[in-house]
Amino acid sequence: MEVSLVAAHPVMLERMRLQLPQREFVVHAFLLPDAGQVERLKLLPSAAWAIDAHNPELLERVLVRLPVQPRVVAVAEAFDRNRAFTLLREGVRGLVSYDVLGRDLARALRAVAAGAYWAPRLLLAGFIDELLTQLPGARLAPAMAGLSARERQVLDGILSRRSNKEIAAGLGISERTVKFHVSHLLHRYRVPSRHELMLRVLQASVPERGRE
Question: What's the Cα-to-Cα distance from 140 to each of 54, 127, 129, 155, 156, rounded to whole Å?
Fold first, then answer.
């Protein structure tokens, strides 16, 4: 799998590179000490990008240079709630802190390359809650296009954080039927979990971030 790494410091760039097994990853490494050098960044074919977010300006400029739907993992010393939510809103799909770089970077790149998210569960749950409060139901309609009426009802139940049992009771159908529809929705949106499903639908309902 081809991936691109971007960092402002050679030590961090090498540290990221060393976490990726050569037998699996073809690595394109870019050292950009100055955020103003981003214009020279070569957009080589990459399944995913890992960017050191120690320099916020560098990360922001690289994101602007990447394709409309980048598959990016941000790497930083830590991610508080506000910073994590800002990055997720900007299109970043993975968050990996320095202390777990060796354990998580390769796994995060694989997940993000497959279209999934990689971030602490509590942060993702909080981000979902924030999106739900910002998006009226009408804004979700485009993301639900092509679904049957029953699938929409089940998806609405998932977005309301109801369990399968609660959805079944509300719709007057069996829990087994709800599980069938949930499985179909996960397959349709190509996500592994309910959290990922909620994020995929909610993110699809948010206007794309502006690009230069």
Answer: 34, 16, 15, 11, 10
The predicted-structure confidence for 121-163, as pLDDT tens digits, reads as follows: 888 888 888 888 876 654 566 667 788 999 989 998 998 889 9
Overall fold of domain 2-119: Rossmann fold (3.40.50)
Class of domain 127-204: mainly alpha
Is there a contact between 157 and 197 (Cβ–Cβ < 8 Å)? no
